[in-house]
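hi! just following up on the protien thing from before. the input was this:
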Amino acid sequence: MLISFSSTSHAIRAEKVLLENNIKATVLPLPNKIRAGCGICLMVDDNNRINEILSENEIQFKIHYNEWDEVIFINILETAKHNNEAIYLSK
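and the predicted 3d structure came back as:
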């Protein structure tokens, strides 16, 4: 799933907080299809603790469950290729 944020500072704090809670978060450029306050998002595995963790840390965010269309998929693959990363996606 993808998580967008109202500001870059919220996105950076969210990545830090999720990593501190052993939840892997990959920073990606925000796909054009998603409108949000900043230009980055986090890709994370679906985890029922994310809402609780981010809310407790007063981070403004929006979770996008149904955004796995071709445009976003291509964006993620291109980003991973650019960063020379291997990614594993599940839907």
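The CA atoms of residues 1 and 65 lie 5 Å apart.
The first helix runs from residue 8 to 20.
cheers
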